[in-house]
Amino acid sequence: MIAPRTARRAGLVASVLTLLLATGCFGGAAAEENSDGGRLRVAMLLPPRSGLSPFSDDAFKLSRLGIAEALTTLDEGGAPQPALATSWSRVDESTWRFVLREGVRFHDGTTLDAARVVDVLARAAAARPKPRILDGVELTAETDSASAVVVRTAVPDPLLPQRLSSPQLSILAAAAYQGDSIDPVQAGTGPFVLTRLEGTQSATLDRYDGYWGGRAVAPGIDVSFVPDGTARTAALRTGTADIVEAVPASQVAVLDKELYRTVAMPRTNTLYLNTRTGAFADPAIRAAARAAVQREPLVSGVYEKHADAAVGLLGPAVPWAAQRPARTERSAGPITGEKIVLATFSDRPELPEVAATLAQQLEAAGFVVEQVVREYAHIEADALAGRFDAFILSRATMLDSGDPVAYLASDFTCHGGFNISQLCDPAVDRAITAAAAEADLTKRRTLILAAEKAVLETEAAVPLLHERVVQGNARGVVDALFDPRERLLVSLKTRRTG
Fold first, then answer.
1. Checking DSSP bridges between strand 139-145 and strand 85-92, what pairing results, if any?
2. What is the fold, at CATH topology level, of the domain defined by 265-468?
3. Residue 412 near residue 461, CB atoms below 8 Å
4. What angle do CA 338, 368, 249 make, to 5 degrees?
5. Cα gap 462→258, rounded to integer Å
6. Domain 10-65+190-242+474-496 annotated CATH 3.40.50
7. What is the helix (H) or strand (E) element at residue 125, kind and residue range?
8. Which residues belong to any copy of the Solute-binding protein family domain (predicted)?
9. Are 287 and 493 in contact (CB under 8 A)?
10. Looking at the domain that runs over 72-178, which CATH code has it been given?
11. 3-class secondary structure, 36
């Protein structure tokens, strides 16, 4: 059974902070001072799982820290904007042409050109597993000139410019790619160069004075990966961290209000049910689990009202989702002591508490529940392989492209690369495919909500709540970024003034 938050071990927090200070992760020898306050000290939630490979979820660290860039980026409304590509045009329904920015140099001194972009896109398309932004997408690229690339998809893809904004399609220098491994050290194009990665513990970044977009104010960034949320919060309180990701809801009350900001996120806490094996292969038993879920104890208890109860997969950070059609709920079958394994990960500190609360609710409905909690790096493979009956995941729903289609395709189609529910339903696949093909934004959103309805009517996923993420900023930190898509954290202007 998961221990309540009141019993968390203060000794662990103290030892983590002692380690951070002793190793210089939040200062020390690396803390160069200047008139703008010196190097930024950042405490990140999740450790790298794949050595900061852009073809994994680590890509978002490369983006958030200003290390690497993709061909495009997104504005607040989700429209594509120039990044390493300055313009693009649609040649025909399945073909796009992208013109590259001139004068861009990688951190190792080599120059960005069309051949480099083509090589990276080819590697991404061939990667196994694919970057999730390419789930269900057959993509090829070729040079059109030294400064232009033609990208083709097997079927029309009106979202391609947004798709190519994904940090998982960041363009790195040729030296980064060694066989099947990718090493981003001194290989990006962003305002900060990654000079050192210490496994899952820390990273060191220096300002890259040759950045095409101008010179950053901060001379560098010292990053620590701190899965323990109480330790991250303590680092903020004691002034040993400048920017802190994901302050746990349980810790907000101990912070001065000027030290944090709450951001409504397109992130949903969802209970995924294994539709292929075990008790939940029966849709009526999945419906019984859905009926047993009570969201209010999660929102008011675990998240202390820093969350919103979920009606669907898309939450209040996606305003148009409120227009969703009504759905039909399947009748719940009788529960006769079905044994289930309910799993989640500990990196987000609320999730083990969510699991404990849900276990009680499911047991009250008649299930026999075994709980499994591990760090994410040690549980993801088993979750994707379908080794649990149920899995609780905090999932960004518009992370990759500013559009939910990539998330729906990845999580709920037959060939989706992140299909924890093991769902393979032809009606769901058709609905998601129809949404993906629609270029008109109004019609596309209607089709997306129809696809959400199709997913929920399978009872494969039970949306629990929509998170409001709390980001900590120490006193004197200026122009840190609060990005609902979790792509950006520091900018050219981000600095500390004391």
1. unpaired
2. Dipeptide-binding Protein; domain 3 (3.10.105)
3. yes
4. 125
5. 35
6. no
7. helix 114-126
8. 80-416
9. no
10. 3.90.76.10
11. coil
Task: List, in sequence order, every residue forming a beta bridge with 202; answer none if it has no partner.
Answer: 198, 224
**What does the block give as tokens for 174?**
């040729």
pLDDT of 32 above 50 = no
Task: Please give the average per-residue pLDDT across 23-41, as a whole number.
Answer: 55
Confidence of residue 31 (pLDDT cuts 50, 70, 90): very low
For the chain, helix, strand, coil in percent to 5 are 30, 25, 45
Cα separation, 318 vs 448, whole angstroms? 12
Model pLDDT, residue 22: 37
Strands 181-182 and 368-374: unpaired
- Compute the C-alpha angle 236/73/267, nearest 5°: 50
The confidence band for 159, taking pLDDT boundaries of 50, 70 and 90, is confident
Q: What is the rounded radius of gyration, in angstroms, for the C-alpha atoms of the chain?
A: 23
Least confident range of 18-27, 31-40, 93-102, 225-234: 18-27
The segment(s) of the chain belonging to CATH 3.90.76.10 are 72-178
d(CA 45, CA 49): 12
Determine how many CB atoms are found less than 10 A away from the CB of residue 162: 22
Sign of the Cα pseudo-torsion (425, 426, 428, 432, in order): positive
- The confidence band for 13, taking pLDDT boundaries of 50, 70 and 90, is very low
Q: What is the dihedral of CA 186, 187, 191, 196, to 10 degrees?
A: -30
Pinpoint the residues of the chain covered by CATH 3.10.105.10: 265-468
- How far from 400 is each of 59, 73, 138, 487, CA to CA, in Å? 11, 10, 17, 9
pLDDT band at 469 (very low <50, low <70, confident <90, very high): confident
Amino acid at 446: T
E strand or H helix that includes residue 453: helix 441-457
Report the alpha-carbon distance of residue 231 to residue 236 in Å, rounded.
Answer: 9
- The distance from CA 129 to its chain's CA centroid, rounded to whole angstroms, is 16
